[in-house]
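Help: read this over?
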Amino acid sequence: MSEAVLVCREGPVVTLTINRAERRNALNEAVAHGLIAGLDVAEADAEARAVVVTGAGADAFCAGGDLKPAADGAPFHLDAADPRHYVVKLLTRMDACRLPLVARLNGHALAGGFGLACACDLVVARDDAWLGVPEVKVGLFPMMILPYLLRVVPYRTLMRLCLTGEPITAADAARLDIVTAAVPAARLDAELSSLLARIVDKSPTGQRLGKQALAKIREMSRDGALEYAQFMLANMARTQDAREGFAAFNARRPAVWTGR
């Protein structure tokens, strides 16, 4: 496993920590590969029910691509022999993750770091963390993360962020529903634990199949989405978890999920 990303499971939650605090957890090729490998580990673990992505230290979740001269694994080049950029590979892998993905913003999430947060399903943040895309200040635009920004950021807010390069606080982002919750730093882990507790006690089969369906439906036409949705609903109703869920509801008892 890459030293750029630490992987730890506590109970049903796997935490992936970007381990470059000295570079504000800047995104490079090693980080991307480490996150991909961490997601692979989490999905292969039968006991895992959710994944948390966070950063080391208390300064930054991820400050985006490393802008230092000659930075190792800098994100601003393509290999002519393999033009699929490592950021694209990471975002594609995050999209395909069958476990709920929760970003823990221990600090600022800027540029590609903001994109990572937007690629997660839910976000819990320090209320004083800055979120934004400052690329225009160095003559760029947040190209590769735009599809993920468009999913969660209101259009006018997105254009203001992109055209001015000025960030907003997580507290403001919570009011716009860009993040799930924004709390003082001292309450960050308690808020995260509360959210995770309400995730991991639900049907893992329902969550996995639901995430798979949502990823496909997002790209479909309305008619295609409705046709696919009815197939998926009937398929899900045949799972052991669905049968257990109905039985538990009618018996007024807690469900015992098997993930099948």
Observations:
- The chain has two domains: 5-200, 204-251.
- The radius of gyration is 19 Å.
- The longest strand covers residues 5-10.
